Structure to design on (893 residues):
């Protein structure tokens, strides 16, 4: 386990300076070379149980605090996969675990957005808008971040971002040009009809025009993609499609993929439980993305996050209820991984948030800011002013990427 | 006579005009809407043909039994998890199909899909044929407010029945009755887990031996899911001042609100079963008020008070105005609707009347985009066809992002434009319009007349010319269907 304070290194010193001034240096230096970088954001809706995804099996209170939910220790049947002797990964994440061994995965724990209540919808809203309060902003942080990409990354790209979803997620809504795509079963309309509809929209409805223009291009880019199946297969299909978009040198450099169904109030445990199935799909989806990106993978980072964690104790229905802090993953060829970043608060009753949840000791925005600044070369001033306004207390993590 | 107001009434408040509708209602568009606000005397035949809630409530267990998981109802979730992992090596073959083993997933689909598709089709056909489209829109609004989603596999057979038996029965009644009906219906109790929730100091918590073995692991204590969503989604609304303690308290108050298993259910129902042994004993304090009553009555009192709370009035008025008027609801309209709700003690006819009487709702410029299902409905109403089967509807609406009875979470489908007109969503509508119009290639149709009948004065000159300038009537029809005027309302 790497202590967050060690990891943050110069935090105390940087804290004495004007926000962003020091932090801005590395990205300015690297800005010109950011064109090839790719960022994928995977949002696990419903609140993934971080204590099951990345179990702290080395915590002396783990088994007692999580009676009924705790995984066996590494080595035992169905046991956690060891990361650093203290934290492990759920055995359903076997291929992700292998990436940890190759230094491509950093695991973050006891991490949370600034949201401290337990509504999914407010929690997701805040995580998607980047505001400090629910509904404080009308568009998404990821879209606003695109406007701060260096010129070299924007050049030649019509759209900077793509959502693999039939409905545009809030995180990617906003002023920057983005597109969306999902599999279809119907035959495509004739080019003549599309041209006529475009002309009609040009005179009557700019919003529909922008959507249609963008879709026509996304569709051309995605031509030949197979429609996905149900459940885990659908997520794998979306991640495969994301890779297809990001592999195109003139295509978007940022993708967002949604995954729903993480709200495990009941029947969470066991090899046939909901969580196990979700984690298997996540693991398979990340592999499909890596395979699809091929030579781009070394320039790729994937953020996997969720709106909040779940209660430490099992609830009355073999599941867990809405909690506070949880786990997040940063995986990719560009990641300086092979470590767990956590300022671990422990699972003793007195140390729990509100007496029931894993206490938050790190801010998700620190991770998001680091990815934008050090991986995508977004101007730090833009990050502070526009991407996460009012979020100055969450300082970007340092040294999460191989090049930064 | 106003064709313009008639078009607003039919399209913004309704499910889209059929040929002849606009002329028929132009004499008194407001009166046409208000006349629809009376309870149903009988269900439409399409919905009457669906099974009863009591019949459907045991289907999931019966399916488990049929695939050999008898007596393992507690393993329902496992079976469903299996059903989604059917191609995994550990998936089991559960039954035979002409001698061939069938995976759990295929078995689930085979068992439930016909009924699910029938529910989807019945709901759609009810909308297509309705003479009271405003009543239908309100039903859909309240069904979305009290979302139960077949995304939870256990309740797939129940979701169409919840809308029919809970929502339609009260859409022209009182809100508190709809709330209570929702909290008594097996679809809601199972969807949000309350049927398994037991009070920490209840008899069953102290005597788990009284539970069948397969339920002991699943019924160990409190589950906050329904209690939280009642406060956050169904009544007061999020950030209206309640606390985590209120969530826990309400969850305790409704412990014991559960369902009969198929074997102990009285013939014909009710499915709802109050289990006193699971109920948390003692008085409870919710939002500063003490609830002394014991048993089920405690929950009825608390829910009734929540239904009458001023925060509930504002929350519901805001959602109604957002759904029918604009994504950013005009404050004056919200005030008016909330006041009508509060003044009338939650009478939903008075509340809907205040909506109709809001001048903000009658602005000529359309402010809302039709969500996919309403878009398809208005298409079929305008064209008088094509006939769409339940399976076709499921496939179409799934690709448009709105698989029926399958909202992504308990907060239901989004009700703002940006959720529905992303690039992919608009493309899917063009695909659909093109495919549909292709089916009319050989038909003798006049797309400009169809457009006029559906939109009246709302059809703009630019669009009319584009339709007239199309290279074929079918292409003109496609242009009408994707026009901004027809996609918005």
């Amino acid at each position: 386990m790497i202590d967050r304070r060690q990891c943050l290194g110069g935090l105390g010193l940087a804290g004495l300076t004007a926000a962003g001034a020091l932090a801005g240096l590395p990205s300015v230096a690297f800005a010109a070379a950011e064109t090839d970088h790719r960022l994928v954001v995977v949002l696990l809706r419903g609140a993934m149980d971080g204590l099951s995804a990345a179990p702290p099996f080395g915590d002396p209170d783990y088994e007692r605090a999580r009676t009924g939910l705790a995984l066996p220790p590494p080595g035992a049947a169905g046991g956690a996969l060891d990361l650093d002797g203290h934290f492990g990964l759920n055995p359903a994440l076997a291929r992700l675990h292998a990436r940890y061994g190759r230094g491509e995965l950093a695991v973050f724990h006891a991490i949370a957005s600034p949201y401290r209540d337990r509504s999914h919808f407010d929690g997701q809203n805040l995580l998607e808008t980047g505001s400090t309060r629910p509904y404080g902003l009308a568009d998404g942080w990821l879209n606003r971040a695109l406007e701060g990409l260096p010129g070299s990354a924007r050049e030649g790209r019509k759209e900077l971002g793509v959502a693999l979803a039939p409905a545009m997620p809030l995180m990617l809504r906003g002023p920057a040009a983005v597109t969306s795509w999902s599999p279809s079963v119907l035959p495509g309309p004739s080019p003549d009809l599309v041209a006529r509809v475009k002309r009609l929209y040009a005179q009557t409805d700019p919003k529909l025009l922008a959507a249609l223009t963008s879709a026509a291009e996304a569709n051309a880019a995605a031509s030949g993609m197979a429609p996905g199946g149900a459940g885990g297969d659908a997520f794998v299909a979306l991640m495969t499609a994301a890779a297809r978009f990001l592999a195109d040198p003139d295509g978007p450099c940022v993708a967002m993929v949604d995954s729903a169904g993480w709200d495990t109030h009941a029947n969470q445990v066991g090899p046939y439980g909901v969580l196990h199935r979700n984690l298997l799909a996540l693991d398979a989806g990340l592999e499909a993305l890596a395979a699809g990106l091929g030579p781009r993978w070394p320039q790729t980072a994937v953020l996997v996050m969720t709106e909040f964690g779940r209660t430490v104790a099992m609830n009355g229905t073999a599941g867990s209820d809405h909690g506070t802090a949880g786990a997040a993953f940063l995986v990719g060829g560009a990641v300086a991984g092979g470590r767990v970043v956590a300022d671990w608060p422990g699972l003793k009753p007195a140390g729990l948030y509100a007496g029931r949840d894993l206490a938050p000791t790190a801010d998700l925005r620190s991770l998001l800011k680091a990815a934008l600044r050090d991986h995508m070369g977004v101007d730090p001033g833009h990050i502070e002013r526009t991407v996460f306004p009012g979020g100055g207390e969450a300082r970007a993590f340092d040294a999460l990427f191989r090049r930064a | 006579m106003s064709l313009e107001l008639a078009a607003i009434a039919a399209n913004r408040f309704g499910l889209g005009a059929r040929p002849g509708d606009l002329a028929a209602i132009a004499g008194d568009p407001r009166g046409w809407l208000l006349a629809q606000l009376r309870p149903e005397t009988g269900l439409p035949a399409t919905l009457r043909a669906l099974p009863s809630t009591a019949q459907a409530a045991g289907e999931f267990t019966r399916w488990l039994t049929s695939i050999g998981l008898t007596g393992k109802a507690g393993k329902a979730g496992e079976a469903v998890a299996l059903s989604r992992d059917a191609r995994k090596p550990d998936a089991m073959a559960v039954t035979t199909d002409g001698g061939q083993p069938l995976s759990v997933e295929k078995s689930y689909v085979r068992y439930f899909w016909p009924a699910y598709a029938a529910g989807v089709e019945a709901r759609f056909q009810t909308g297509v044929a309705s003479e009271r489209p405003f009543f239908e829109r309100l039903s859909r609004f309240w069904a979305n407010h009290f979302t139960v989603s077949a995304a939870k596999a256990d309740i797939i057979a129940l979701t169409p029945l919840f809308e029919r038996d809970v929502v339609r029965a009260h859409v022209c009644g009182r809100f508190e009755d709809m709330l209570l009906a929702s909290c008594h219906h097996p679809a809601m109790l199972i969807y949000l887990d309350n049927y398994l929730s037991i009070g920490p100091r209840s008899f069953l918590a102290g005597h788990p031996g009284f539970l069948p073995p397969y339920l002991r692991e699943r019924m160990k204590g409190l589950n906050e899911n329904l209690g939280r969503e009642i406060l956050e989604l169904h009544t007061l609304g999020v950030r209206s001042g309640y606390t985590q303690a209120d969530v826990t308290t309400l969850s305790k108050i409704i412990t014991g609100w559960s369902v009969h298993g198929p074997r102990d259910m009285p013939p014909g129902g009710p499915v709802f079963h109050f289990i006193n042994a699971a109920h948390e004993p003692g008085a409870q304090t919710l939002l500063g008020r003490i609830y002394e009553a014991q048993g089920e009555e405690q929950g009825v009192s608390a829910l009734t008070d929540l239904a009458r709370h001023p925060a509930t009035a504002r929350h519901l008025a805001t959602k109604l105005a957002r759904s029918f008027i604009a994504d950013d609801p005009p404050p004056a309209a919200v005030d008016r609707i909330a006041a009508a709700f509060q003044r009338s003690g939650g009478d939903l006819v008075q509340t809907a009347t205040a909506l109709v009487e809001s001048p903000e709702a009658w602005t000529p410029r359309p402010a809302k985009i039709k969500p996919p299902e309403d878009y398809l409905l208005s298409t079929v109403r305008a064209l008088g066809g094509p006939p769409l089967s339940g399976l076709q509807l499921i496939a179409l609406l799934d690709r448009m992002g709105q698989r029926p009875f399958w909202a992504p979470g308990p907060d239901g489908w989004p009700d703002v434009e940006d959720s529905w007109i992303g690039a992919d969503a608009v493309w899917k509508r063009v695909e659909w319009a093109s495919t549909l119009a292709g089916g009319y290639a050989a038909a003798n149709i006049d797309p400009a007349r169809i457009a006029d009948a559906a939109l009246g004065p709302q059809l703009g000159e630019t669009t009319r010319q584009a339709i007239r300038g199309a290279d074929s009537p079918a292409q003109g029809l496609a242009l009408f269907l994707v026009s901004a005027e027809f996609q918005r309302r």
Observations:
- Chain B touches chain A through 71 residues (CB under 8 Å).
- The longest strand of chain B covers residues 93-97.
